[in-house]
């Protein structure tokens, strides 16, 4: 069984292999959310995401050792920075763990590489085909894959996940995608993260330079949707973090830049974010009614 088959095969309840350790050089941003999306289509089991660095180990061990009314869950646990003593405790727990839940542990710690499943950071054509087959995108047009790998010999894991979903939606009608959109999608994903980073870190001069490069690539409606999602996730993150629920907070903020989790969330106030979100609502209303054509520019200059 390939790594991707191991990753996307729904575990049999009560099976002995209750834990799977997935090791990558860097944990792709979209991997865990994509994994959850696939599993939610295949099983009725609850899928829960936990961040190791936000967990109290004793509470975590207890949570993974009991069920509620006998209902087993699927847990995705993302590795993080913990003390060496906690790492020893955690590793001992992993070695002995036998359920009742199924645990997927995602890590980029090379300590785990020797005996566990290795996920390649760079996806070749062969790996892309395996990924498509294993994750349920069986009907993905072969011409789509051929065209993709005529452009490049490989893609990052995150790029591959985005391209899989576009290919599934487009089917054989993909000519316009390759002529107008594919290069933009591959390059812009990182650029949007950079734009968001400068927005939340309040680095106005850098933000405006990045904005000048990106603003004409998409219509105003896209920017309303993009910044609305960013603001809403930021609001939820701050709300949950402020009441000591940092692990749960990150579940709602998977599209925010890393810098937001590290320090930039402290620069924000919920009232200002809500105010900015309200302005975007007004811009959206204006665009739908034929005015507010400069609304996004006003938003950028006001809240950066």
Describe the structure.
The chain has 304 residues and is α/β, with parallel strands linked by helices. It has three domains: 116 residues, Rossmann fold, CATH 3.40.50.300; 52 residues; 107 residues. Helix content is 57%, strand content 10%. The strands form two sheets. A five-stranded parallel β-sheet has the order 2-3-4-1-5. α3 links the parallel β2 and β3. α7 packs across α8 and α8 packs antiparallel against α9. It is globular. The chain starts with a helix and ends with a helix. 23% of the residues are buried. The model has no long low-confidence stretch (mean pLDDT 80).
Proportion of beta-strand residues = 5-15%
Mean pLDDT: 80
CATH class of the largest domain: Alpha Beta
What's the CATH topology label of the largest domain? Rossmann fold
Structural class: alpha/beta
Which strands sit side by side, in order, in the main sheet?
A: 2-3-4-1-5
User: Can you name the CATH architecture of the largest domain?
Assistant: 3-Layer(aba) Sandwich
String of helices and strands: HEHEHEHEEEHHEHHHHHHHH
Question: What is the CA-based Rg, rounded?
Answer: 21 Å
Report how far the terminal alpha carbons are from each other: 49 Å
Notable characteristics:
Rossmann fold, globular, five-stranded parallel beta sheet, two-stranded antiparallel ribbon, 304 residues, 57% helix, single chain, alpha/beta
Question: In a nutshell, what does this entry contain?
Answer:
The protein has 304 residues and is of the alpha/beta class. It has 14 helices and seven strands. It is 57% helix and 10% strand.
């Amino acid at each position: 069984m390939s790594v991707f088959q191991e990753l996307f095969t729904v575990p049999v309840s009560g099976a002995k292999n209750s834990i799977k350790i997935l090791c990558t050089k860097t944990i792709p941003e979209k991997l865990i959310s994509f994994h959850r999306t696939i599993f939610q289509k295949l099983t009725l089991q609850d899928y829960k995401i936990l961040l190791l660095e936000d967990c109290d180990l004793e509470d975590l061990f207890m949570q993974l050792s009991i069920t509620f009314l006998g209902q087993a869950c699927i847990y995705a646990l993302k590795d993080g920075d913990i003390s060496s003593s906690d790492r020893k405790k955690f590793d001992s727990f992993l070695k002995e763990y036998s359920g009742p839940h199924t645990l997927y542990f995602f890590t980029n710690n090379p300590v785990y590489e020797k005996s566990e499943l290795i996920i390649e950071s760079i996806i070749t054509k062969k790996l892309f085909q395996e990924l498509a087959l294993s994750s349920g995108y069986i009907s993905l047009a072969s011409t789509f894959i051929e065209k993709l790998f005529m452009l490049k010999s490989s893609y990052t894991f995150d790029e591959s996940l985005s391209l899989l979903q576009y290919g599934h939606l487009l089917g054989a009608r993909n000519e316009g995608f390759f002529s107008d959109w594919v290069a933009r999608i591959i390059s812009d994903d990182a650029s949007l993260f950079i734009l968001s980073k400068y927005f939340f870190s309040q680095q106005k001069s850098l933000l405006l330079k990045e904005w000048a490069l990106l603003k004409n690539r998409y219509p105003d409606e896209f920017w309303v949707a993009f910044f609305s999602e960013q603001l809403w996730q930021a609001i939820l993150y701050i709300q949950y973090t402020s009441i000591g629920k940092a692990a749960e907070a990150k579940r709602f903020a998977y599209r925010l830049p890393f810098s937001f989790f590290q320090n930039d969330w402290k620069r924000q106030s919920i009232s200002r974010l809500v105010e900015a979100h309200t302005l975007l609502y007004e811009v959206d209303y204006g665009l739908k009614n034929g005015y507010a054509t400069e609304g996004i520019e006003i938003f950028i200059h006001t809240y950066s």
